[in-house]
Amino acid sequence: MSIEFFAKALKELGHPTRLQIFKHLVKSGHQGLAVGDIQEELSIPGSTLSHHISSLVAAGLVKQHREGRTLYCLPQYDTLQQVVDFLQDECCSREDIKKREV
Question: What is the pTM for the complete model shown?
């Protein structure tokens, strides 16, 4: 994954409404939630919700699928884990360098 991919994911999660939606989806588990349920539970107007969900989809954090007339949003845990791993992958790697410099 490129730095641009991670920057986009973090940018989309940096918006309070999108972060709230994503966190709500993560709580729902692997089955996800119907868009109507998200709208009702979070009290977000439909057009606003649609805009925010499409941003999360574009960042690869959410996928959607339709069952009949119901559109479901599913959090992409693999993508979330990749973002977390990216942030932590070099954790403390410079500690030894600083100790040697002292």
Answer: 0.88
Give the three-class secondary structure for 88: helix
30-46 burial code (b ≥16 CB/10 A, e <16): eebbebeebbeeeebee
User: Please, which residues have CB within 8 angstroms of residue 18's CB and are 6 or more apart in sequence?
Assistant: 12, 52, 55, 56
Distance CA 55, CA 94 (A): 35
pLDDT tens per residue across span 41-91: 999 999 999 999 999 999 999 999 999 999 999 999 999 999 999 999 988
